Amino acid sequence: MRAPTQETALLSHALPLSLTAAVNPVAAGSSQAAEFHGPSINEFFPDALLFAGTPFEIDRLVIIRFIAVAVLLVIGIVGTRSMKLVPGRGQALIEYAFDVVRRNTFDNLGEKDGKRFLPILATIFFSVLFLNLTGLIPGFNLQGTSRIAYPLILAVVAYVAFIYAGLKKHPGAFLRNALFPPGVPWPLYIIVTPIELVSTFVLRPVTLTLRLLMNMVVGHLLLVLFFAATQFFLFDTEGAFKLFGVGTLAFGIAFSFFEILVALLQAYVFMLLTAVYIQLALADEH
Fold this sequence. Notes:
- One of its GO terms (molecular function) is proton-transporting ATP synthase activity, rotational mechanism.
- Keywords: ATP synthesis, Cell membrane, CF(0), Hydrogen ion transport, Ion transport, Membrane, Transmembrane, Transmembrane helix, Transport.
- It is found in: Cell membrane; Membrane.
- This is ATP synthase subunit a.
- With 286 residues, the chain is mainly α.
- It has 8 helices and 2 strands, in the order H-E-E-H-H-H-H-H-H-H.
- The chain has helices at residues 2-23, 60-81, 89-133, 149-169, 174-179, 189-201, 203-235, 242-282, and strands at residues 48-50, 58-59.
- Strand 1 (48-50) and strand 2 form a beta hairpin.
- The longest helix is centred in the middle third of the chain and has 45 residues, at 89-133.
- The N and C termini lie far apart (86 Å).
């Protein structure tokens, strides 16, 4: 009875080893098998550099945010310090970028209200854009918007601007008309009011936050996956497996350009939705 038991134990240990050898034939003959380590959520939580364990903890991502904001301020101050009637290339680029925000703001809010809210919308657009692009800069390799704090703060700013615009324009009717839309039969308010409360005053800041956050998180993870796989196939495998590294490198480069488009698009969408929400608050229906 003892021998069959030992044979069963040996087979149970040999089976996983044979499966490993079949799946990873490159490392099957070596004592140190190469392993691929994909990206994880820990990418967004690097080790603390200053004030560890306090609410003011500073890590690499926070420093990236500081640097991105500092660069944005320097470009804004230096680029607009000596404006000329006939702009040079730098001034023309800044004017064009700002004009994109201005035209979209005026299209949604009109010139009068657009001038009031243009500073907020321009700040949202350019800060989101610069912090999104840090994920593509060598040495940074991490978007400043890939952790929830910054997207959440911007969503709160947009939410406060929305509430302020509505209360300022329609102090007595904004909240009432938002929760109890005119023309709806009174019995239906039992259903309509909770829906309006959640959709208008809860989901809007939540969706603004999550839309930006998740796009940046997914984009970063995909880039890390492509380039980590490239390193693995090119340096840790042998033979024909190295060809996979060429493919993952091509995908990584192509997706890097796609991430530039996503960074620009997410900044534009965040700014545009904020302008639309403010426009809804200013509408005469309230």
